[in-house]
Amino acid sequence: MSGRLEAIWVKRARKGVMDPASAVRLLPDHGVAGNPRHGSRRQVTIIEKEAWDAMMEELDADVDPSARRANLMVSGVRLHDTRGRLLIVGRCAIRIGGETRPCERMDEALPGLRETMRPDWRGGVFGRVEVGGEVAVGDPVELRDVE
After folding, report:
1. What count of other Cβ atoms lies within 10 Å of the Cβ of residue 129?
2. Which residue range forms the structural domain that includes residue 108?
3. Using an 8 Å Cβ cutoff, are 49 and 64 in contact?
4. What domain count does the chain have?
5. Rounded Cα–Cα distance for residues 113 and 135 (Å)
6. What is the pLDDT of residue 28?
7. 114 vs 18, 73, 81, CA distance in Å?
8. Which residue pairs, CB below 8 angstroms and at least 24 apart, start in 33-41?
9. Three-state secondary-structure class, residue 65
10. Tens digits of residue pLDDT in 7-31
11. What is the rounded average pLDDT of the residues 98-109?
């Protein structure tokens, strides 16, 4: 499966505002440059554009995807059940650690959003940066099995 990096957001502080960016540096074993929580197992959070669009249709809403509070939005790759796989973004590699479970803040953004995210990992995934570098909106994205 191959796809595209659709959007990038960086948090100013834990629970802070999500700022859009056209490019960002991913730091190995650290995460997104300028983002809090460096070095945690949730270094990078990723959502799927197709899943977001489907949820907005189901809820008859038009909430900006930054409300999910993820760092990257990708299209053309299915994130469901990808634990342990590598997500290649441009020249960078992120090892998927698992599902990012939706919290109560999702219902603050849109009532019903949290429950709508629960099936099929539609709330996205988290991962650790294994190969760092700069990524930019428009970069190619692909999932790879680990050998």
Report:
1. 21
2. 2-144
3. no
4. 1
5. 28
6. 94
7. 18, 18, 19
8. 34/10, 35/10, 35/11, 35/71, 36/11, 41/97, 41/126, 41/128
9. helix
10. 999 988 777 788 999 999 999 989 9
11. 86
CA dist., res. 136 & res. 139, Å (int) = 6
Q: Are strands 72-75 and 44-48 parallel, antiparallel or unpaired?
A: parallel
Alpha helices in the chain (DSSP H): 49-58, 105-109, 113-117
What are 35's two structure tokens? 């983002």
pTM above 0.90, yes or no: yes
Classified as helix, coil or strand, 105 is helix
Composition of the chain by helix, strand, coil, percent to 5: 20, 40, 40
Decide: residue 74, CB within 10 A, 0-12 exposed, 13-18 middle, 19+ buried: buried
Tally the C-alpha atoms within 13 A of residue 88's C-alpha that lie toward its C-beta.
11
- For residue 67, the domain's CATH number is 2.40.33.20
Tokens 């590699």, located at residue: 93
What's the rounded Cα separation, in Å, for the pair 118 and 15? 21
